[in-house]
Design a protein that fits this description.
The structure holds 2 protein chains of 2 kinds. By secondary structure, chain A is mostly helical. Chain A has one domain. Chain A has 11 helices and 3 strands; from the N terminus they run H-H-E-H-H-H-H-H-E-E-H-H-H-H. Chain B has a single domain, classed as outer membrane lipoprotein receptor (LolB), chain A. Chain B is built from 4 helices and 12 strands; from the N terminus they run αβββββαββββββαβα. Chain B has a 10-stranded antiparallel sheet with strand order 4-3-1-12-11-10-9-8-7-6, covered by helices on one side. The longest helix of chain B is centred in the first third of the chain and has 32 residues. The chains are: A mainly alpha, B alpha+beta. At the A-B interface, strand 1, strand 2, strand 3 and helix 9 of A face strand 2, strand 5, strand 11 and helix 3 of B.
Chain lengths: ~280, ~230
């Protein structure tokens, strides 16, 4: 019954035009980035290498598919949560707004299974968005710009990673990025259980991400104690795979915190939906 | 009369030393100018503050007077100055004056310091110090001080191409200004600010370039240097 309902949920997602908005927006944004890098890539890259170029010269294929993929991932991973929330934030509240939630709950399927099927469908949608992002970022940019060593700018300097040492980092980076987006998906489904309209959970999800991200980027020591527990702090964990020495312990910690958030949001969604009054 | 003789003697002494220093540079130039072009395999190791890069291999092409190109599979980092600037500068007759300094032992070889001072006040080069092995007419160490990039020290080692004055190893020591990269540009917002506390102090970085399999005067075409 769970699988059948998940299939139904997927059909519902596919039948909504907003579900394709994410793929369209990603394709358009990546096309714009690729065009900009092709037209003016060297000046964009010199912004990164500028501090060193007074004394050093960088030789070789600096603007390559790996660098473009990294730039795309860094730029879009901030915006993709909106595209995810646009669909997943509507999964429960959309049913409430249309009045179909009562009909669903009257079918021979438990409320827990309804929530789980919606969560699985949302997770599959998130996976597809991540894969699409990965395909466009990695394969299309490699096709256009070729391959090469990757220059990564961290706050403690520049790291140049050999070409042969990059692909596994992208692979694992995308896995962690998927986990981050799944957290966003779980959050928006959780907020969706509290709402009777679609806009509320989408806006609330983005607002929470925005506020947490700003708190995370502030260098105020007053927030230092809460930063390690905010999921937005760990949403950037994918970037750690691009350090010269990968901090696996910190990444494991981030994965644990993201997974804990996912299960907490899912648990709270189940609790709320099971208690939800659908008669009014 | 005694004073006049002493003045003449000192003047002559200074003049003859200046001449000698420039003669040595001329000999070094002649040696290097005998090389019309060359290609050589390079192995580059960089140890630069705030820059992490693995050692890399490549092929370096040179053609007189100052054409240099490096072909490598990956990204290589080289000092902005030090490869051709020094030879180009030393080849400009009348652009500088050279004065002998003290004698120093470098890796067991007796060298003589030559201070090279540009005549043009607008020149980017402020001072060049050359430690020269007078027996072989080769530079064993140089220090290039420029207005734009601070100072760069270069240590030279020679083996099979000593007749052309081509080194088998160059070790560059360069000044690198420390700087702070904002989190918003770097993108790693989850890093604590402890690692970001950097000042404007200058740190030293080293780049070691090993040269193997020189092919000298092989008639390299100009197109090699124009290819991307």
């Amino acid at each position: 019954m769970l699988l059948k309902n998940t299939y139904n949920e997927l059909i519902k997602i596919v039948s909504k035009p907003r579900s394709f908005l994410g793929f369209g927006a990603l394709s358009l944004l990546i096309a714009i980035i690729l065009f900009a890098m092709k037209a003016d890539g060297s000046s964009i890259v010199s912004m990164v290498t500028d501090s060193f170029e007074q004394t050093l010269t960088f030789n070789g294929n600096v603007i390559n598919g790996n660098l473009i993929a990294f730039i795309i991932l860094q730029m879009l991973i901030v915006h993709v949560p909106l595209l995810i929330a646009l669909v997943t934030g509507d999964l429960i509240s959309g049913e409430a707004a249309m009045g179909t939630i009562r009909m669903m709950a009257s079918k021979p399927i438990s409320r827990t299974q309804i929530v789980l099927s919606k969560f699985i469908a949302g997770a599959l949608y998130t996976l597809l968005i991540t894969l699409w992002l990965g395909f466009l970022a990695l394969f299309v940019s490699h096709f256009i710009f070729g391959s090469g060593d990757l220059i990564v700018l961290n706050s403690d300097g520049l790291v140049i990673l050999p070409e042969a040492d990059v692909f596994w980092r992208f692979g694992l980076g995308f896995c962690v990025a998927f986990l981050s987006l799944l957290t966003v998906s779980a959050l928006s489904i959780f907020l969706s259980a509290y709402s009777e309209n679609s806009i509320g959970p989408i806006v609330a999800t983005m607002s929470i991400i925005l506020v947490f991200t700003i708190i995370g980027s502030l260098d105020a020591s007053v927030f230092n104690s809460i930063k390690p527990y905010m999921f937005t702090t760990h949403m950037a964990a994918w970037r750690s795979f691009f350090s010269a020495e990968v901090p696996f312990n910190a990444i494991y910690q981030s994965i644990v915190i993201l997974v804990l958030h996912i299960f907490s949001f899912l648990g709270m969604t189940l609790y709320k939906f099971n208690k939800k009054d659908i008669t009014s | 009369m005694k004073q006049f003789v002493l003045f003449i003697a000192i003047s002559f002494s200074c003049f003859s030393h200046a001449q000698n220093a420039e003669d040595v540079i001329t000999k070094i130039n002649n040696k290097f100018n005998a090389v019309k072009d060359y290609s050589v395999n390079v192995y580059i190791q960089a140890n630069i503050p705030m820059l992490k890069i693995m050692p890399n291999k490549g092929k370096l092409y040179f053609k007189q007077k100052d054409k240099v190109k490096i072909d490598s599979k990956g990204i290589t980092v080289l000092p902005k100055q030090g490869f051709t600037e020094l030879n180009s500068f030393l080849n400009e007759k009348g652009a500088y004056m050279a004065i002998f300094g003290d004698s120093v032992m470098i890796r067991g070889v007796k060298t003589k310091l030559i201070n090279v001072i540009p005549n043009n006040s607008a020149s980017d080069i402020i001072l060049v110090k050359l430690w020269v092995d007078l027996q072989n007419n080769i530079i064993l160490r140089s220090q290039l001080t420029t207005k734009s990039n601070g100072s760069i020290n270069i240590d030279y080692s020679y083996t099979d191409q000593i007749n052309y004055g081509l080194p088998n190893q160059l070790k560059f020591e360069i000044d690198v200004k420390k700087f702070k990269i904002p989190k918003s540009i770097a993108g790693d917002i989850n890093k604590t600010n402890q690692q970001e506390k950097t000042t404007k102090e200058i740190d030293k970085g080293t780049i070691t370039v090993n040269f193997t399999e020189y092919k000298v005067n092989i008639g390299l075409k100009d197109e090699i240097f124009s290819k991307n």
